[in-house]
Every structure is written in C-alpha cells, then in structure tokens.
Design a protein that fits this description.
The chain has helices at about 5-15, 20-40, 65-80, 85-95, 100-105, 125-150, 175-200, 205-210, 225-249; strands at about 45-50, 105-110, 115-125, 155-160. It is of the alpha+beta class. A four-stranded antiparallel β-sheet has the order 2-3-1-4.
C-alpha cells in the first residue's frame, strides 16, 4: 500500500520539532554574526577610471571606425593592466612588500559594454593602500602603454580617493546573518523531517493501525498512580458503606 503524507502530518512534525528547528536557526545566525564581526578582516575597495580615446596627435573628429577600434583595444588593455609588465613597476615604485602576483589578486579590471571607460578596482584591508595601488596602477599603465603599443590614447578620468569614514565592501555581517538564518532554517526543517522519517517507534493507536493495516477494536487506557490511588479510595469507601449497611440491618 502506497504511503502518503498529509499536510496535517507535516505541520505536526514541524510543531513537534519546533524547538530543534529554532535552535539550529539561532545557532547558525549567532555563529555567522560572531565570525563576521570578530574574525573576518574588513576589506575596502578603491577605484579609478581611465579613458581609451583617440591619439592626441590626431585632431580630426571621431569616426565610428575609430571608436570601434578603441573598443576592441579595451580587452587588450585589460590584460596589459594586470600583466607583469605593469605590476612589476607598480610593486617596485610602491615598495609595499607585494609582488606582481599579489597585486594581481587585489586588482580587478572591467568596463561597461560598448564603453571606452576602463575601471580599475583594488581591494585591500587598508583603504589608503587600496587607493594608492589603484592610482599608481593607472599612472604606470598610462606611461607604459606608449612603449608597449606605441600609442598615446589613455587618459585618467578619476583618481581613487579615500573618504573620511570608508565602509568595507566585505564582509557584510547583516547579509551573512540573514543568509545564515535561511540556511539554518532549511537545515532545521530538513533534520526534523529526517528524524521523523527514521523514527520507527509506535506512539499511539494510529501508528499501530498504519503499520499493521488493521482496524483498531479497542485500546487500553493509561492510568497513572494518582488515578489508581483514587480508585482504591473509592473502593475502600464503597466497602465501608456496604459494611455499615450490613451491620445496620
């Protein structure tokens, strides 16, 4: 016989394991909050923008073909910016104790679709260091691209700056706690149903009927000690009453 589970049974399972579900959810949120606030290092981000335009010696107006050429060059420039040819110079000039590979891991280069503006973003635990690396990378690239590709068509639009109270881009404690709440709730519900699935104990007459597939003809009620004591007192009272009637007659 195919076994089906009703919505009522699901709700009863959740109600029975509610303490377990709430506990797992709260534990996950607390652990996430503690790790996010006290153990993860805040990471700050600074960005600078450069513009890929026509060569400065060319005073003619832009043409669609020149713009398209510059757009195609952007992908090449994105690779060159993170190459050792640029980052080795940045590392030597900044003297931060970082090599080209370490700088490469901190730097992200990207551009909007069909845009000649390239964005150089740097992430570091120190906001001033992030801004310093971003600006120096843009400056070195602007000067070195002339030697590498024999072109002079890069301009710095905006330098990276550090505000008075910079906010870290990661970690985001509130977001982490919210995610932990959802994950903890899902884990708690899943564990509750898993425990219920592997629980083969028979607790009531409905379980007996379900396991055997036979109708219940009768049940034996449970009587606690207090009820037994009350029954004894009632029997003793009846016996006393019967004796009294017998003696009186």
């Amino acid at each position: 016989m195919e076994e089906t589970i009703s919505l009522k049974e699901l709700l009863e399972t959740l109600k029975k394991r509610l303490a377990l579900i709430v506990s797992i959810t709260l534990i996950a949120a607390i652990i996430s909050g503690v790790v996010s606030f006290f153990f993860l290092t805040p990471i700050y981000q600074a960005s600078t923008q450069i513009l890929v335009n026509q060569t400065k010696n060319d005073q003619t107006a832009y043409s669609p073909s020149e713009v398209q050429t510059n757009l195609q060059l952007i992908n090449t420039y994105n690779v060159i910016i993170k190459s050792p040819a640029i980052l080795d110079i940045v590392a030597d000039e900044l003297k931060l104790g970082l090599n080209a590979n370490q700088l490469n891991e901190k730097i992200t280069v990207g551009s909007e679709k069909d845009s000649q503006v390239v964005n150089i973003s740097v992430q570091d635990s120190n906001p001033d260091t992030a801004a310093l690396i971003a600006n120096k990378t843009a400056e070195v690239f602007q000067s070195e691209i002339v030697k590498i590709m024999n072109v002079d068509n890069v301009s710095i639009l905006a330098k990276a700056q550090t505000g008075e109270n910079p906010s870290p881009v990661k970690p985001r404690p509130l977001l982490n706690v919210a995610i932990a709440l959802v994950v903890g709730l899902m884990a708690g519900v899943g564990l509750a149903f898993l425990l219920e699935y592997f629980d083969n104990t028979i607790k009531n007459e409905q379980d007996v009927e379900k396991e055997l597939g036979l109708p219940i003809l009768g049940i034996i009620a449970q009587i606690d000690d207090q009820q037994i004591e009350e029954l004894k007192q009632r029997r003793a009272a009846r016996k006393s009453a019967v004796r009294g009637e017998t003696i009186g007659s």
